[in-house]
Amino acid sequence: MKGKKTSSIGFLSDERRMNVALTRAKRSLWVVGDSDVLKANHVWKRLVDHFEREGMLRDGGNQNDFQLHGRWEGPS
């Protein structure tokens, strides 16, 4: 997702679509976007704040944040 801090997040602001996108993940979920833009929406703000509190938010500028910490063995 590309945007400016004052941009809207378009279809991602539709809570029904967001719910479908976030609840379909079976093994893992990656949300890639500008956290400041996402936080413009109250629902996304709660999710991003949760990621921050749990230490799950990664900065795209820090390549060390993206090293794999395990190996996915595939579906069981």
Task: Walk me through what this model shows.
This protein is mostly helical and 76 residues long. 33% of the residues lie in helices and 0% in strands. The protein contains three helices and no strands. It has helices at 15-23, 35-38, 42-53. The radius of gyration is 14 Å and the shape is globular. The N and C termini lie far apart (32 Å). The mean pLDDT is 75.
Q: Strands, helices and their partners?
A:
Elements: H1 15-23, H2 35-38, H3 42-53
In helices, the fraction of residues equals: 25-40%
Alpha-carbon distance between the two ends? 32 Å
Mean pLDDT: 75
Unreliable sequence segments: none
Instruction: Give the SSE order as H and E letters.
Output: HHH
Question: How many individual β-strands?
Answer: 0
What structural class results from the helix and strand content?
Answer: mainly alpha
User: Can you count the helices?
Assistant: 3
Principal-axis shape equals globular
Rounded Rg: 14 Å
What does the main sheet amount to? none
Question: How large a portion of the residues is in β-strands, by DSSP E?
Answer: under 5%
Compact description:
With 76 residues, the protein is mostly helical. The protein has helices at residues 15-23, 35-38, 42-53.
Task: List the main descriptive attributes of the protein structure presented here.
76 residues; mainly alpha; 3 helices; globular
